[in-house]
Write a structure and sequence with these properties.
globular, 2 domains, 180 residues, 4-stranded mixed beta sheet, 29% helix, 3 helices, alpha/beta, SHC Adaptor Protein
């Protein structure tokens, strides 16, 4: 694995670098040797934040943890990542055996995502990410792995930009563009 360590408001000491390398190397058994792991350490006031991102075969494993101790943050973030990897592998195994994501519950819904009500309209953060064509099932898996409530992707079947989202009832919805 290629481990890239960067710091914000923090000097990366040899002890931190060794700790990160030691902990991240435990994930080697899940990935190919050329897999790149991006680790970002930062300090904001008394919070020690560790963010780890691992792109792998079109999927993105990402976790962030914040504590008052950098070493504790490193341990917690890698525990989160290992849990994500196990969930992903379990879902893949189920899909090969049973055809996961195909159940009696409808996958699509026409119900609105939000209730009516006044909300402040202000963009507070912008994120950019590479868009890869994928199936709806892959997008649902990626959304679940990231722990998000929605996921924007290019639908491999239609070539259109779609959004999958988790509904309040625990099921999933799909938003597709419709052109007049």
């Amino acid at each position: 694995m290629k481990i890239i360590i960067s710091g914000k408001n923090l000097e990366i000491t040899d002890a931190l670098r060794n700790q990160i390398n030691k902990k991240v190397r435990k994930l080697e058994r899940y990935f190919e040797p050329e897999t790149e792991v991006q680790v970002t350490l930062s300090v904001e006031k008394s919070r020690h934040i560790v963010e780890v991102t691992i792109p792998h075969k079109g999927m993105l494993f990402r976790a962030e943890e914040s504590t008052d101790d950098m070493y504790a943050s490193i341990d917690k973030v890698l525990d989160k990542l290992e849990h994500q990897i196990h969930r992903y592998r379990t879902k893949l195994e189920r899909s090969f055996r049973k055809g996961a994501f195909r159940d009696e519950k409808p996958l699509f819904s026409d119900e609105p995502l939000f209730e009516d009500g006044a909300r402040e309209l202000k963009v507070v953060r912008t994120k950019r990410f590479a868009v890869k064509p994928m199936t709806v099932e892959e997008a649902l898996m990626q959304m679940d792995l990231l722990g998000h409530s929605f996921f924007v992707f290019t639908n491999a079947e239609s070539g259109e930009t779609n959004v999958v989202y988790r509904r309040r009832d625990g099921r999933y919805g799909l938003i597709e563009p419709e052109y007049d």
